[in-house]
Amino acid sequence: MLEIFTDLADWAIIQLGLSKETHLGSAVHFFIEDSTKIFILLYLLIFIISLFRSQLSPERVRDYLSGKSRWSGYLLAVFLGVVTPFCSCSSIPLFMGFLAAVFLLA
């Protein structure tokens, strides 16, 4: 399954006129192979998390947390705050909203 990344890196170093046997060729091969894996992984994770976040609204979370005890509400708010966001620019406001919902319910 991951051979495509190795094949891409092999093709790229051939195009650059490098050999896999040299230190430079080996480093470039490693960089290209692992960089493409990381970019594809990030793309897939961002896509999946975006799909999940599009289905999650503060109202749904508030309704879900409304019947819970204070400490289970805290744990669920922390779990939802960790799982749903992908970067700090969205995680902090979302986490604060979860905590505010828990405090309003308590």
Task: Summarize the helices and strands and which ones pair or pack.
Blueprint: H1 3-15, H2 23-54, H3 58-65, H4 70-83, H5 88-105
Helix pairs in contact: 1-2, 3-5, 4-5
Give a description of the structure.
With 106 residues, the protein is mainly α. The protein folds into 2 domains: 1-55, no CATH class; 57-106, no CATH class. The protein is built from 5 helices and no strands. α1 (3-15) packs across α2 (23-54) and α3 (58-65) runs parallel beside α5 (88-105). The N and C termini lie far apart (49 Å).
Task: Give the CA-CA distance, first to last residue.
Answer: 49 Å
Q: Work out the strand percent.
A: under 5%
Number of domains: 2
Q: Which H/E pattern describes the elements? A: HHHHH
Please, what is the average pLDDT?
A: 78
How many β-strand runs? 0
Secondary-structure-derived class: mainly alpha
**Shape estimate:** rod-shaped
Key features of this structure:
106 residues, mainly alpha, 2 domains, 5 helices
